[in-house]
Write a structure and sequence with these properties.
With 308 residues, the chain is α/β, with parallel strands linked by helices. It is 53% helix and 13% strand. The chain contains 13 helices and 8 strands. Strands 1-2-3-4-5-6-7-8 form an 8-stranded parallel barrel, surrounded by 7 helices. Strand 7, helix 11 and strand 8 (272-278) form a beta-alpha-beta unit. The protein is globular, with a radius of gyration of 18 Å.
């Protein structure tokens, strides 16, 4: 199992320096992360929107060690909102945020993260769009869900992410489905112990289907975060069984992965949202993309051999 090894490398400063210094790395990273600042990303937003795709924007970065950095992360998202406003895309371009970037892990981090993310949610609402709170490792989730619940009091369209590989997720899904929340379901991309998470692919896939069935039968808005053709087909069937119209759920995939499938689903009338990350602190995000899917690792290794 290479996934856990890669996830361990994502936390290694030595591996960060080694991979960042490799001449080919930028060429490969550009496949997944199309820019380092907001000026780079605005043309990408326009291009994807012109293709009939929707977006969720992520300013990458997680290693926040003080409140000043957390405030800078907040300001980066506020700048993104400002640049999205004239595009008038509304919910076709939403934002995804990791509360770790807003100071969640610092002393008093729950309150700090809430105070930093609220202005972003408010600004997003002012331009007709919304924010989804990304899931991180299992130790952060009680705080994330509490912040999500608090934000939904004033901004009910605020979404959150749940991870199929965690044992707790089926209960979380039932609660969120009953409350009518927007929920992105993913398999999970953090190294979690066997005490809290399924470890095998088949177990995770079965859990994903169980959770997705709950979301489809519920009162909320399911967002199917997967590149797996089988799970995509199952998602379509579960939506049909639940009597959902095409605008009552959506698919989400990462920028740079299965782009033909993005366009195919959009052409069939599905809402297809592309998770589009940008920023200079790309290492952790990039390594999790490699860990999630063996094909991504093969792509990187082949590029290192042929272009390095």
């Amino acid at each position: 199992m290479l996934g856990p090894v890669i996830l361990a490398a994502s936390r290694s400063d030595r591996m960060r320096r080694l991979i960042s210094a490799a001449p080919v790395t930028k060429q490969v990273v550009d496949r997944f992360i199309p820019g380092e600042d907001v000026d780079d990303i605005v043309p990408v937003v326009r291009e994807l929107a012109d293709q009939g795709l929707e977006l969720t924007m992520d300013v990458v970065g997680e290693d926040i060690t003080n409140p000043v950095q957390a405030a800078a992360a907040r300001d980066a998202y506020l700048e993104l909102v400002d640049r999205l406003k004239p595009l008038e895309l509304g919910t076709r371009a939403e934002m995804s945020v990791k509360l770790s970037m807003f100071g969640q892990a610092l002393e008093g981090g729950h309150e700090l993260a809430l105070s930093n993310v609220r202005p972003v949610v408010e600004a997003a609402a002012e331009i007709g769009t919304t924010v989804t709170l990304d899931a991180e490792d299992h130790t952060t989730l009680d705080s994330m869900f509490a912040i999500h619940e608090e934000l939904r009091k004033d901004f009910p369209q605020t979404g959150c992410v749940i991870q199929a590989y965690l044992f707790r997720t089926e209960a979380d899904a039932r609660r969120l489905a009953e409350s009518g929340s927007r929920v992105r379901l993913v398999k999970g991309a953090y190294k979690e112990p066997a005490s809290v998470a399924y470890q095998g692919k088949h177990e995770i896939d079965r859990a994903y289907v169980r959770v997705l069935r709950t979301l489809m039968k519920g009162e909320g808005y399911p967002m199917i975060g997967s590149h797996d053709p089988r799970l995509i087909a199952i998602g379509q069937e579960l939506a049909h069984q639940a009597g959902r119209k095409l605008d009552e759920y959506e698919f989400q995939m990462l920028y740079g992965i299965r782009t033909d499938e993005h366009l195919r689903l959009a052409a069939e009338g599905h809402r297809m949202r592309v998770y589009t990350a940008y920023g200079t602190d790309w290492y952790g995000y990039f390594m999790r993309r490699l860990a999630e899917k063996p094909a991504n690792l093969r792509f990187f290794a082949r590029s290192m051999i042929t272009k390095g």
